[in-house]
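Input/output pair, single chain:
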Amino acid sequence: MFVAVALLTIAVTIGAGLALWHLRADGGPPAMVGLLHGVIGATGLGVLLLVLRGPAHGVAAGVGSFGTTAAWLFGAALVTGIAVLMRRRRADAVMIAIHSGLAITGYVLLLAWNSLGF
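Output:
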């Protein structure tokens, strides 16, 4: 579980930097930084899916479904992130906002599940 949280924390941190970089008027961040963000996030999602295959955690605290919900949200963020990467030159701010909203919501649920369920 620690590895999943660590990887997804790194991905969220890079994503926050990308969002701020994108707001600058000089054309936005290089595609390689976005690709690195995506690879780390996808790896974190893969590790989270492996954790979910184990025994149920957090049921007694009422957060038993948070891990599964976080995984779905991260999966949706991955799909929208790929769409942002494919439309790099015309990346719509709404698409980026949807991507970050999904990822941040999944991250908050992951942290709640990690702190209360393990």
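The chain has a mean pLDDT of 90. The chain has four helices and no strands.
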